[in-house]
Please model this.
Amino acid sequence: MPARKREYDEDDVRVRPGRSSRPRTRTRPKHEDAVDALVITVDRGRYGCVREGGDDDIVVAMRARELGRKSVVVGDRVALVGDTSGAAGALARIVRIAERTSVLRRTADDDDTTPEGRLERVVVANAEQLVIVSALADPPPRTGFIDRCLVAAYDAGIEPLLCLTKNDLAGPEQVLDYYAELDLPYVLLRPDSDLDDLRARLAGRMSVLVGHSGVGKSTLVNRLVPAALRAVGVVSAIGKGRHTSTSAVALRLPRVGRRKDDPGWIIDTPGIRSFGLAHVSAESLLHGFPDLVEGTLDDQPHCDHMSADCTLEKWVAAGNADPRRLASYRRLLSSRAGEPAGS
Model:
């Protein structure tokens, strides 16, 4: 007689207790009680923030895990939870980053690369104005660097302002003549200059200052914000300044006299020797040279603007633009292709 197939009921089943854990969920807390703040410093995973509409007490914060890989940079407007008192030892958490109105980027130096290529760095977020600080002498002005900054500003949708220092040592004619067709706003400064014109251009705005080491940027920052205590460097004998600032920092401009308008913010950046533009497309490079745009209108499609047969070449040769501007534009094009870049 064949054996009967055994039937099982619930008493025969062994149930193993599972691991006790909370079920995973994609639902994130809304943090409706979060405090709005502005990031003014970044230092090894700690972010110095000031509360929007509050005093200038610095709240130290760290990134919340829910931000994932989103970077936080100086100029970011964020939401904080936790201990936002600003007391010694207190630590808040950044749980949200507001949408950025602008992002100023630069590609790292040639020797700062990864297997995927040159590193792209976000300099600051939400800047409205790029103040390009250049000395007229000691060290001499470098229009190639200024051109790079202009391209980065136009690419980011930030208005540029040229700030020419050390006007007591040299005149501005050569630099201003080079940019004569751009209608580029500028201010001239010497050690005894008042800063009224510059303050008026900074009022109510978030402005970021960039410039080579030794051009007087830290001295200018100390004059604008006496409490900044930024170190003032000494220009070396070979004409290249040593680095005097090592990290970007946002500084609230003080009110002057009885003026009630918002004096604005400035972001002081470290002195840099290059401003890489590998992140900017070849087409966007031309935005930094609006005086050359007309010469490209009749050019052949997909022209690289590098050959002698280029319409732009003939247009400039006919006296419609400064040949130095075309040479600078071509140096930037070449640097994107991996060739040595101009200064």
